[in-house]
Amino acid sequence: MTRQKKSRSAGNNGQRHMPATEARKLRQPKEETKKKGAGKKSGSRNAIVEHKAEQQAGHSGPKDPRTGSKKPIALVAEPPVAPQIKPDLLPKARLTKATVPGLSAAEELAMIENDAQLQQLLERVENNEVLTGKEAKYFNTKTARLEQLLEQLGLAGQADSAEDDDPLAQFERTDWRKSILGDED
Question: Does the global pTM surpass 0.85?
Fold first, then answer.
């Protein structure tokens, strides 16, 4: 036997790679089908369709889909009719400003004197703190109302007259240095 030299090539193991143009020629073309439409077939509204359910329900015959509304249409435009307001729909109550019911001046004075927030603000003012914003507005309105109530009840003058009756209080208020020495400091 003659000896044959082994070659390094493996040989034909698979299909040969074909160029794209040859591959296209070998492929079978797809069957061309008509695209299915989404709607009903043309002329379907004119076709008379028999429904078994309608016949079983006792209808005398199939309903013609071509028939529309039987409502009469006015050929001449009519003027628009203004809506009438019924007297029952009118409001029977009237809006008024809300007032605090049944508070007498003495009760309101007691409420202001017992107001905890006002007492805190009063302490801050006595400590020479400056109130700003809502606190100042609240303090001013409450003190103004307190003065009005004191005048209304006749208590505004009594606080001053009670101090005048006390001779010791008057003695403590008097600055003797001014009267004796004549200093203006």
Answer: no
How many DSSP H helices and E strands does the chain contain?
8, 0
In a domain? residue 51: no
- pLDDT tens digits, one per residue of 19-36: 889 888 888 877 877 777
Helical packing angle, 133-153 and 156-165, nearest 10°: 80
**Integer CA distances (angstroms), 174 to 162, 165, 166, 169, 170, in order:** 16, 14, 13, 9, 6
97 part of a folded domain: no
Please give the residue range of the domain that contains residue 126: 105-181
Burial class from Cβ neighbours inside 10 Å (0-12, 13-18, 19+) for residue 149 reads buried
Which pair of tokens denotes residue 46? 């004119």
Residue 52 lies in a domain: no
Number of structural domains in the chain: 1
Q: Are the C-beta atoms of residues 78 and 126 closer than 8 Å to each other?
A: no
Report whether 74 contacts 53 (CB < 8 A): no
